[in-house]
Amino acid sequence: MLIIWIDGTVLNLTAQISPGKLTAAHEHLEGLANCTECHVLGDKNTTQKCLECHIEIKDLIEKNRGYHASSEVREKECHTCHGEHFGRDFKIVRLDKDEFNHDLTGYMLEGRHKELKCEECHNSQLVRNNVSQKKGNTYLGLMTGCTSCHEDYHQNTLNGNCISCHSQESFSPAPGFDHDKTEFPLIGMHQTADCTGCHAIVNRNGRKFQLFSGIPFSGCVNCHDDVHMNKFGNDCRECHNEFSFQNVNNNFDHNLTNFPLNGMHRSVDCKQCHTKSFTEPLVHDRCTNCHKDYHEKQFQRNGNSPDCIECHDVNGFSPSLFGIDKHTLTAFPLEGAHMATPCFSCHKENNKWKFINLQSECSGCHENVHENYLDNKFVSDGGCKICHNVSVWSDINFDHNTTNFELKGRHAELNCRECHFKQENNYLKEQQFKWEQQNCTNCHTDIHYAQFDKNGKNDCERCHTYNNWIPEKFSHDESRFKLDGQHKNLACSECHKLNYYFERPYVVFKFDDISCESCH
């Protein structure tokens, strides 16, 4: 610092020459002796000096790469964006990551790259472009090639143009790859084959690696086993094709035999029938010559089982040809919902089909949920049919007048379950069809807390009807306290208050003391 005393005034020449302190990044250039490190005497433009120090940016500009080579920045002077002499804490690089237009760098962000944070690519761990860089954070020097950031999964066995197969949305699948453009176009079943069946995944150089080049494909046996043990030569195409190995396309026509191949027989492996040779005669007059009697002689007649073709055909054992029309000829014709019931619901037990000695009563297939609850007098010889039908189980057709509780008013509108079933968490917990006494409180809560009980019974019908809870039958004139005079105009709640001393508040209707002094 240079200090001069003139006429009693102290002059600080450093303060007069320097416009302010340098940022922390340029702190080492502080002082009069270092001015020419950044400034050219007589010239306001410092760009030349900046690039002499920041050679990494100069190198990118000369190669026409990166943000500083873009039309938005190229003709600007450095100090217009990176000001100096504003103090140690001044941010000489001010980057708005959210508003920054990455297209100006020459590398447009697409696909998954749009979702990445800047630091995921711009970090010191990634491979740089051999550009001399100073220590510290920087966004410069990244190559635009895929392998500059991503590991070469193919380990240099394929060309380095990753985007010819892959997209920036995801690495797999490779939408740009077309197998038809290779020396082995995929035809028939090869189009649906798992890639790893031919392109094995191995370990190479300590990393997972999938073989895509150098795979032999001159003959079928490169990938497929010769099941014929070379008895028919090694040119599989003489009999087979890529669309189905089982569809033999040789000159042999099976229709020329006395057993034409129809239905499922067409897809059967030849060796399933021709176990020894293709010329040995086979017995084939009945299905059971090849197929086991799955029903274990349940349909046996006069010691012989009928042929399977009465219920099945060569297109498959399922579905059966035994339909509803044939079922009507049995002892149990199908009606109502039974017509839509799958066969196995009634005829399959423990993974075995059963067609004989089946019960015809409802309980043979359905659980009797009313067992030990419903009085036997309501279960006639028809069983469940006295209430239910075969069309809709929930459609109850029961005459309640046959009981000692006739349904009146709102009771006639209720579903049976509302009175006879108690449920918890949507599951049946308990059912009840008989009560010792016909009290309203069997189903309804006594909100009056036994105020109107007589001889242990609460006869709600004295005030209420079956249509609603309004006390239509109640008359105050028939009570101990006849309403007259001004009492007629009073609201009920003026005299009948809520009692809050029980679990639930209730209105007090009966008083021990009905004298005038009890209210007035």
How much of the sequence is in beta strands?
5-15%
Shape, per Cα inertia axes:
flat
Let me know the average pLDDT.
84
Counting DSSP E segments of at least 2 residues, the number of strands comes to 10
Unreliable segments of 5+ consecutive residues = 1-15, 129-135
Distance between the termini: 105 Å
Count of DSSP-assigned helices: 10
What is the rounded Rg?
A: 48 Å
Biggest beta-sheet profile? 2 strands, antiparallel
In which order are the strands of the major sheet placed? 1-2
Strand-pairing-aware structural class: little secondary structure
SSE sequence, one letter per element: EEHHHHHEEHHHEEHEEHEE
Describe the model.
The chain has helices at residues 13-17, 35-38, 47-53, 55-62, 118-121, 270-273, 324-327, 343-347, 416-420, 492-495; strands at residues 3-6, 9-12, 201-204, 207-210, 348-349, 352-353, 421-424, 427-431, 498-499, 506-507. The model is unreliable at 1-15 and 129-135 (pLDDT under 50). 3% of the residues are buried. It has 520 residues and is low in regular secondary structure. Helix 3 packs across helix 4. Among the domains are: 3-144, no CATH class; 359-434, no CATH class; 441-520, no CATH class. It has ten helices and ten strands. The longest helix is centred in the N-terminal third of the chain and has 8 residues, at 55-62. The protein is flat.
Descriptive key words:
520 residues, little secondary structure, two-stranded antiparallel ribbon, 10 helices, flat
